[in-house]
């Protein structure tokens, strides 16, 4: 997506939630998502659960957060949603936001970062928010795989149905910088196939494509792991 792309519409709007929380939307996108939010119970619920987390993160290391805070945060603004639960005024997780901006990470990674925030915060709060992340990602063709608690690894994997199977584009951030990694696809009958392998990179970032004959609708799990079975990141894939 380029900066000149038209605002997304339809189902794509669900995908803007993460960037919305982190203040990463353009004006047009912000307007489009705000309108969508008023009529989408799914996003209302997710936002209610997500919006308290930045404040939670701020408690973790307020000194660092202050140091990295943008002077004029364009954080998500509060939106009045009739009938929605009260979720207070969203506050951008400034440390993460600053890092994202500095690196000019694309929106899909921004969204993925929001997923990472959720995982971190779920550990801090003792809440089980991880399945929530998977749920709202599952409506799209883009899956976010995250590492174990404490890991900053976020891997966005698009799943594109083809007549021959499923094409995948993997986009990983904060992966281990060395070692060999394998992408394993598991179907709903529990059968697994290795569909890609690659080595770590100095930047911890990797983008690659993979393909497998398994139909998109029958994929149930994606795991990025090492040869000895350590799960670098994983995601469950909801039925389509
Ligand atoms: Zn929605």
Structure description:
The chain crosses the membrane at residues 109-133. Residues 12-44 form the Putative zinc-finger domain. It comes from Lapillicoccus jejuensis. This is Putative zinc finger protein. Keywords: Membrane, Transcription, Transcription regulation, Transmembrane, Transmembrane helix. The protein has 240 residues and is an alpha+beta fold. It folds into two domains: 10-126, no CATH class; 142-236, Immunoglobulin-like. It is 34% helix and 25% strand. The chain contains eight helices and eight strands, in the order H-H-H-H-H-H-H-H-E-E-E-E-E-E-E-E. The strands form two sheets. Strands 1-2-3-6 form a four-stranded antiparallel β-sheet. A four-stranded antiparallel β-sheet has the order 5-4-7-8, with no helix packed on it. 35% of the residues are buried. It binds zinc ion. Zinc ion (ZN) binds at residues 13-14, 36, 40, 42-43.
């Amino acid at each position: 997506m380029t900066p000149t792309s038209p605002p997304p519409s339809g189902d794509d709007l669900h995908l803007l939630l993460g960037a919305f929380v982190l203040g990463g939307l353009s004006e047009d996108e912000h307007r489009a998502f705000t309108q969508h939010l008023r009529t989408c119970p799914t996003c209302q619920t997710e936002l209610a659960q997500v919006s308290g987390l930045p404040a939670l993160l701020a408690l973790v290391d307020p000194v660092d957060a202050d140091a990295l805070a943008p002077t004029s945060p364009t954080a998500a603004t509060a939106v009045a949603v009739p009938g929605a639960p009260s979720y207070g005024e969203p506050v951008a997780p400034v440390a993460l936001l600053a890092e994202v901006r500095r690196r000019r990470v694309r929106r899909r990674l921004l969204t993925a970062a929001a997923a990472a925030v959720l995982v971190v915060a779920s550990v801090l709060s003792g809440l089980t928010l991880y399945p929530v992340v998977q749920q709202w990602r599952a409506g799209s063709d883009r899956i976010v795989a995250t590492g174990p608690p404490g890991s900053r690894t976020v891997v966005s994997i698009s799943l594109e149905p083809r007549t021959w199977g499923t094409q995948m584009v993997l986009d990983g951030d904060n992966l281990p910088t060395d070692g060999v990694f394998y992408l394993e696809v598991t179907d709903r009958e529990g059968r697994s196939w290795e569909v890609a392998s690659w080595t770590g990179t100095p930047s911890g970032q990797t983008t690659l494509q993979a393909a497998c004959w398994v139909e998109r609708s029958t994929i149930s799990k994606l795991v990025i792991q090492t040869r000895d079975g350590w799960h670098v990141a994983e995601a469950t894939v909801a039925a389509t």
